[in-house]
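Q: Give me the 3D complex with adenosine-5'-diphosphate.
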Amino acid sequence: MIQNDSIRQVLNTYWGFDTFRPLQEEAIHAGITGQDAIVVVPTGGGKSLCYQLPAAMRETGLTLVVSPLLALMKDQVDALLAKGISAAYYNSSLTASERREVESGIATGQYRLLYVAPERFADNAFVSLLQSASVTAVAIDEAHCISQWGHDFRPDYRRMAGLREIFPDATIQAFTATATPRVREDIVEQLHLKDPVILVGNFDRSNLTYRILPRRKARERVRDIVEKHQGSAGIIYCIRRKDVDELTAYLSAEGHSALGYHAGMDNDTRRAHQEAFATWEVDIIIATVAFGMGIDRSDVRFVVHMAMPQSLEHYQQETGRAGRDGDPADCYLFYSAADGMTWKAIFQKGDAPGQSTGFQDVRVAQLSEMEAFCQSTTCRHMSLCNHFGQYYKSDNCVACDICLGEIKTMDDSTVLAQKILSAVVKTGERFGAKYVANVLCGASDALIDERGHASLSVYGLLSEHAQGDIVAWINQLSADGLLAVGSEYRTFSVTEEGWSVLRGNQEARLLLPATPVKSAPRRSRSAGSTLKRRPVSRGGTSISTETADGDDIDMALYEKLRKLRYDLATEQSMPAFCVMSNKTLEGITRVRPTDEDGFRQIPGIGPKKFAQYGDQFLECVRAHIGG
Ligand code: ADP
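A: Here is the predicted complex, encoded as structure tokens.
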């Protein structure tokens, strides 16, 4: 076996480095000893060395490097040649005579490394040529592209599944910067890796401070961010090209030198802008996700997302371009609940950047994870680490809006969370966020009625809140681990931790909603369903609102009656609607009876009901009017 000393010597002689970066040594050992491996190291971690060094150490044998980044192949090969390591690349950019030259080099065993694009494996003649050469190892760069669960699935990578059969004796090693446990498993399975060494680097970028802000006056706030970081480099990501153009114009008008970058620009302009950024001529670049591959500017001090990216993988990769020199850097994301819809519309049209056709479910699932991250009140560093299958050790990262105490939460968060969790339990832990939110809002819809959920004690319990806010809180509770999401459908059930909150053993935090004013979900009557906005009471002040019948009622009174109904029902262990229907409660609120006669006129109040509950309800009305 080759000793560490000789590996270090090669490192020093050929690369001029004295030490290895994390996991490089382990990966190189695996390469030299012919073990399959999957190496997950953040961008800039030095993955190339992991397959280049073992290749350079071999006297004979070819290492195939599969990479989708054609533009970078030439640079890599030039760098190897400059070190005296024999290497070549074979792709569509070569002329016919250059191709012939490389083919003959392959046939004569001239190269230690050969860079190829995945689509090369569709060419049978080329594959036969490779089979006749002595391929010792295959290194697959950007290996997440093989998985539909990755953020950049490329159908061409599917061909890599046949590598094991094409080169039965070669060591296969997969390299990627982003891989969740799910993607990792997929890579191992698809490449038929044999008992692979699994090396996963540290994904936490402790020098980055993450902040998620509601998207209000975003342009002005971006300008403030740029001004705060005056003289530093920054990347601002937008979803759409037109947003790039508008923001570039705005910042330029505000006196900042900024350039745009998106796929709608011609190649020359794009290259010129990328070059201007890379050579420090300009510090601010405003781009769609198309920007960044291969950018090696390590002094980026801030990254702004003008809207939510489509997945946590994208977020990690794009924010990862900040602070690569190890100095502190800031990441801001302007989030709006509408972002999810924007992405879904883009997916439907099939033109998301880097999007392959199909796999809508995967895209939507990744979007939900991203949304949950934005809505969560859990430390951002911890959430990202967990997502990438790592344990985060600190209780307070001191480098995110949550841990820095910058987010605003509801005063009654725990009680609110208990109400939501109760609704999930009472509806049988079988429904999605919207349904549970509708029940809590007191929405009148046929399905809720049919399932008898309108008579649950939790029905209308959060009528003072907008349905959208409740949905967001449900997602927050899920992101914070108090609710679990079903594997098949996005239905929710209460976790152990959730039960701990329900029992009052643990506190919960819910974000102050972005929508300050209540607006309950409303359906058009012509659609055959009306939605009642239940009365609300804030701080004891009566506020009137519209009912299904279109008139105004005293919400504070309604709330008191509903609370009384809830107490009576609980006392007798019966559903609330058996005590009094919503319609009857509305009637009492409207008529405000203070004696038996008045009370008996309300629809739904017969002698039996009056005998059972009349006194309590009358007392409630009298106390309300008197108070
Ligand atoms: P990745 O593919 O993981 O994004 P690269 O292989 O492109 O990273 O390496 C990123 C940079 O780190 C390169 O400039 C490379 O020369 C440098 N590098 C790699 N390994 C070491 C090391 N052991 N010591 C110092 N610099 C290194």
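A quick observation: Residues 244 and 506 are 44 Å apart (CA to CA).
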